[in-house]
Amino acid sequence: HLFGSGHDPNDTECSKTEQFGGKFLMNTISVFGKYPNNLKFSPCSLRQIGLKMPNHNCLTPRSTGAFCGNGAVEDEEYCDASSKGMEDLDPCCDRYCKLRGNATCSDANHICCKNCVIAPANTPCLHSEPVDCTKPSFCSGRDHSCPKPAYVPEGTPCPGPGHCYSGKCLSFCQALSRNRSVRLQACMCRTNAACKSCCFNTERANVSDWCQVYSNESVLDGTPCYMGFCKTGVCESYEASTFKRFQGFLKQMKTPELETFLKGNLVMLLILISLIVWLPATFYIYRA
């Protein structure tokens, strides 16, 4: 919306069906992110954003020179660890963005700076990130910046479920496409296969069986499925989950506790029963 785009209209150009890539980013109802179009702007959005592009002044930075106190080391600054109201509190950097005493860096500006000096070699500076497919990174002992982390071996499992290739976590379908001469995209199977790893061949998008199971292994718990989320390989709907929680609540309550609960919420129960009885009756009376 900040770029000037409204919600997509419900037409064939800007509101595609799942068979043709799914809804776009600015769909009226939020999307799961399972289909190719879910993370793209529709042609309608791009046209609306394009109309706002001439107003580029709103994206022009006001400051063109160094500003001591913004937390970023800029031209002619040795450090910048202060902010308004926090001047002179950093042990390494003063209010004028100069290093204090024997300090060679500021911990606030550099990961590989410890106690105002360059951190020892092999000091951890970045943890491994499964989503980014990277290994842990360690300080060199020669510089205050953290070295760029190395990639994990090709094919290493990553969240999704997916596999790492060239530092990118590819989804199951994307990784499968690397070993085949087809281009596969993730899709959401229906019925009993809703929590399986499903893909569709983008070159055969017009066939009736476009979304197929490519692995019988169930997706991770919590993965969205139709009107619910996957749990132990089964798609549980929102309504079913709510009913099960309420059913479990009643089962856990013993008879004396249930009586106490009912007595303490008697008014609420009477109102609820009245609504259940009178709303259908009122509708019937007015129709008659």
UniProtKB/TrEMBL annotation:
It holds the Pfam family Disintegrin. PROSITE patterns: DISINTEGRIN_2. SMART domains: DISIN (SM00050). SUPFAM superfamilies: Blood coagulation inhibitor (disintegrin), Metalloproteases ('zincins'), catalytic domain. The keyword Disulfide bond applies. One of its GO terms (biological process) is membrane protein ectodomain proteolysis. This is Disintegrin domain-containing protein. It comes from Candidula unifasciata.
